[in-house]
From TrEMBL:
UniProt cross-references to PANTHER family, sorted A to Z: NMRA-LIKE DOMAIN-CONTAINING PROTEIN-RELATED (PTHR47706:SF9), NMRA-LIKE FAMILY PROTEIN (PTHR47706)
GO molecular function: oxidoreductase activity
Keyword match Oxidoreductase: yes
Source species: Trichoderma asperellum (strain ATCC 204424 / CBS 433.97 / NBRC 101777)
Keyword match Hydrolase: no
A matching Pfam family: NmrA
NmrA-like domain residues: 9-143
Keywords: NADP, Oxidoreductase
Protein name: NmrA-like domain-containing protein
């Protein structure tokens, strides 16, 4: 039988983001299962008091802090796996991080995914996924290099993180109980809570694989639930006690919105329009088969329970614009 390995020395790049924070906290809670857990402090980024406090919490929890730039080979030395929960404007740096990591001896990467299956429908050609697709292509290219046949990666695919599905970016105004949706009431998307997405991510780090049978190149699909927009608004109405006034728009009208945003150089608006197209065309509906049964100890939380929880949480209420 081919030699099985797990990922034991872990570096998180992008620890201060919404997903990165939850990932670091989860690693801390399972620290004893790893040889080394660390987070990357990108010294080119602005320092804030919030970040200083967050990093102190991580250090107190037993994570190492590694400081430097994405081109510093030394900073990446001694790790077998780098996870990159980077935000929209940083996703483009991943090929550089991968090349530096490879030089330092890293042989496994979790690129910034935690989203839709990029091979589904027309996702691969959508603007929002451009840098995610380029990153996959870069990994696949480096994986063909003669000196790195052992280069592996893990793609965590889930559809949409449930907490994000009901924010302004996706057309929902919780303060005024109105919504502008590109698509139809029957349109579906797959939703998984961030906590469950990260719980699955940690399990995959512990999931043994072998390089011999290509098991080091792992696309996982984890499914929570796939409600329609109508079901989502029914939940919101039940939880908030308010009726939502929802306007459904022709999906393809977002093409023009995307082009307009591009013409004026508004990247965030361009990404928003791209997301509307992806969503309206069913791109965030996770195709089967799912891999949940590999980790039967995780029972994804229901959409109702996730929404109820976040509407009760003061910080999350702000995030929801409520
Ligand atoms: N499927 C979904 O519904 C969904 C929802 C949310 C996120 N995600 C995915 O999860 C991943 C992480 O997202 P997130 O929302 O957690 O990200 P985020 O909070 O926006 O940012 C994550 C990290 O990126 C860094 N960063 C941001 N802009 C940067 C820049 N210009 N240069 C260098 N670093 C920068 C941040 O560092 P600073 O603290 O220094 O700014 C932070 O550490 C992404 O792949 C995203 O697509 C998916």
């Amino acid at each position: 039988m081919a030699l099985q390995k797990t990922l034991d020395a872990i570096l998180v790049v992008g620890p201060s983001g919404m997903v990165g924070k939850v990932l670091c906290q989860a690693l801390i809670s399972r620290k004893s299962e790893f040889k080394r857990i660390a987070f990357f402090n990108d010294t080119s980024r602005p320092e804030t008091e919030e970040k200083r406090q967050l990093f102190a919490t991580f250090r107190n929890g037993g994570m190492e802090q590694v400081s430097g730039l994405y081109t510093d080979t030394e900073a990446f030395t001694g790790f077998d796996c780098v996870l990159m929960p980077l935000g929209n404007h940083a996703i483009k740096f991943q090929p550089t991080i991968i090349d530096t990591g490879i030089k330092a001896g890293v042989r496994h990467f979790y690129p910034s995914e935690w989203g839709a299956d990029l091979t589904a429908g027309s996702n691969r050609t959508q603007r929002y996924y451009r840098d995610k697709v380029l990153t996959r292509e870069h990994l696949e290219k480096r994986g063909r290099d003669e000196d790195t046949p052992d280069l592996g990666w893990t793609y965590i695919q889930l559809g949409r993180l449930a907490e994000w599905s009901i924010i302004k970016h996706f057309g929902i105004d919780n303060a005024n109980h109105t919504a502008d949706i590109y698509g139809t009431p029957e349109g579906r998307q797959s939703l998984l809570s961030t906590a469950d997405a990260i719980a699955y991510t940690i399990e995959t780090l512990r999931h043994p694989f072998s390089v011999a049978d290509n098991g080091h190149r792992r696309p996982y699909r984890f499914h929570g639930a796939s409600p329609t927009w109508k079901e989502i608004f029914d939940e919101l109405e039940a939880i908030t006690g308010h009726r939502y006034s929802v306007t459904y728009h022709d999906v393809e009208s977002a093409v023009e919105k995307e082009a307009r945003a591009k013409a004026v150089g508004d990247v965030d608006l361009e990404l928003e329009a791209s997301h509307q197209l992806i969503q309206g065309r069913g791109g965030t509906l996770l195709p089967e088969p799912f891999n949940n049964n590999l980790f039967p100890n995780i029972h994804p939380e229901s959409v109702h329970s996730i929404f109820e929880k976040i509407f009760r949480d003061e910080n999350m209420r702000k995030f929801l614009g409520y």
